[in-house]
Amino acid sequence: MDNFIFFLKEGLFHVLDWNAYDHILFLVALTVVYDFKNWKKALWLITLFTIGHTLTLILSTYKIVSINSNWIEFLIPITIITTALFNIFYVRKSTKNLKSNINLILALFFGLIHGLAFAGGFKMLIGKSESKLLPLLEFALGIEFAQISIVFIILILGFITQNILRFSKRDWILITSSIVIGVALPILKSAIFW
Known about the structure:
The chain is mostly helical. The protein is 80% helix and 0% strand. 39% of the residues are buried.
């Protein structure tokens, strides 16, 4: 039970670490288009993202897939900026039925990239331990709890902004996505390695 709590907490705080705010930025960009009326869609989105990053976390941990960390650090801000840009261009077309199934595909695909970033931290935790699968799943569960917490906060902020401060949903999405891009661009610039 101690190991379970340890790896669960490590996964939880891996996402909630302010030094690793890129993951939080991605979650903001991914879920800013949702509200409490469609919280189930947001939950599915986060679950698909978790499936994607758990898959590459497993493949990387078992040394089936190995990608240079420079590329991963470069691709992470690309996923953030792409998702936020998708929000901006999509919201111009329609605010009634925001996001289509493409968002689910993006969550799964970009989850694969983010899982490669998680793998480095996880490998340091387990060292040369032979038992990897159960700790890996516990770590992934901690990540999922952290992501759900962040999504809940985003939904609350969206509710406050739209219902109390009276911003339109369109403005909420445009402003938040633009801020995410503004924060992610310096991350991208510093990640250029060639």
